[in-house]
Amino acid sequence: MTGPGPDPVIDHPPRPLAQRLGAILWPSFFTAGVATMVLFAFVDPLDLRDISFVDLPISRETGYTLGFFAFWLATAASSLFTWILLRPARRFNRPPGPGRG
What is the domain partition of the chain in residue ranges? Predict the structure, then answer.
């Protein structure tokens, strides 16, 4: 039996880039699709064009596309910030070692 000491710290290796990107982009893609359907079930993209970008020749399909990508960008940013906040602090708050001062 060993004496009292510090608990062992288990540090999992970082996830592969594809897995990290998938964890950010897939939920935001799904959410953007749902948000786009809900918005455009009640609002016509041409009505939005008429109150915002009157001089631009934006078609209905372009309005749907722009709306989807705007929702995707917003929800991807939300997922990214959540991922940043949930990273283990011990990976970034290590005491300076020799030569790391």
Answer: 31-87
Taking residue 12's Cβ as centre, other Cβ atoms within 10 Å add up to 7
With a cut of 50, list the residues of the chain below it in pLDDT. Answer: none
pTM, 2 dp: 0.72
For the chain, give the secondary structure using H, E and C.
CCCCCCCCCCCCCCCCHHHHHHHHHHHHHHHHHHHHHHHHHHCCHHHHHHHHCCCCCCCHHHHHHHHHHHHHHHHHHHHHHHHHHHCCHHHCCCCCCCCCC
* Contact between 48 and 66 (Cβ < 8 Å): no
